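W.,

You were right to be curious about this one. When I first looked at the sequence I had no strong expectations either way, so I just let the prediction run and decided to look at it fresh. Below is the sequence, 152 residues in total, followed by the output.
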Amino acid sequence: MRLGDVLIAAAMVMPFQYQRCGSRLRHTDRMESDGTHRAVNLAERLGQFDEHWSPRTVAEFNGHDVMVVKVRGEFVWHHHDDTDDLFLVLSGRLTIRLRDGDVELGPGELFVVPAGVEHQPFAAEEAEMMLIEPSGTPNTGDRATAAKRIAI
């Protein structure tokens, strides 16, 4: 699958505002009033906030959150015991610091940190990313210090 296909698929994933439709739930945030479907515009969603290291959930699928986040400076060293950590850079540059070396990412590049591997994301200048994680995964690896889940 090409990166463009991944971004298109991610942009079309359904956000989680639901409406009961008979015995089924219907996703309403990706539908126009005439019943036609619409995509999630990642640039538009990124324009709705300015905070760094505070991811916003823009969609949900198969028990995973699709999030956008603005970053600048360094995040805390952390790891996730039970899940990998996917970073997809949309704009800017990001360094994923690992104990055994760094991974440099630019726009359109992604890196998956394996479960249990300690890492520290760092951006010298502001960067924008898309993250995909199982719903409820604390961004710091620790529920006590994690950012609150915010859906937009």
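Here's what jumped out at me. The first strand starts at residue 18 and ends at 21. And, maybe more interesting for your project: The radius of gyration is 16 Å.

Coffee later to discuss?

I.
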